Amino acid sequence: MLHRNPTDRGGTVARSRSLKAPLLGGRGPLAKVPPAVAFLVVIALFTAGVLIRGPLGAVLLGMLAAGVGVLLAATWQVLSPSQRFGRALVFATLVAVLVSVL
After folding, report:
1. Is 85 helix (H, G, I), strand (E, B) or coil?
2. Cα–Cα distance between 96 and 12 in angstroms, integer?
């Protein structure tokens, strides 16, 4: 009995995207930053901003919001409408959290 491989498409094996490949190709300043490091910096800034609260917490969250806004603006042209909506929603949520810690 033959078993069909679910990844088989017309005799070729479908390849999944490499986890180390950049989501959007580029040579900018963040191109060489490992994704895990970027993730940890974002989590640290967000956590510190929420826990510290007040003006200092708002400054930390503001730094994070500025970075997200710059990245959103820089990648806007290559994003699909659903990706734009999701990233704009994240940005708006971050700004709402920033305002709430004041």
Report:
1. helix
2. 47
Q: Among 10-14, 27-31, 47-51, whose mean pLDDT is lowest?
A: 10-14
- Token pair of 99 as six digits: 């305002």
Q: Could you give the CA distance from residue 11 to residue 32 in angstroms, rounded to a whole number?
A: 37
Residue 67, classified by CB atoms within 10 Å of its CB into exposed (0-12), middle (13-18) or buried (19+), is middle
Residue among 84, 64, 82, 62 at smallest CA distance from 72? 84
Task: Give the pLDDT score at 99.
Answer: 95
Residue-level pLDDT at 28: 72
Handedness of CA 61, 49, 81, 30 (dihedral sign): positive
Contact between 54 and 101 under an 8 Å Cβ cutoff? The reply is yes
pTM of the model: 0.69
H/E run at residue 12 = strand 12-13
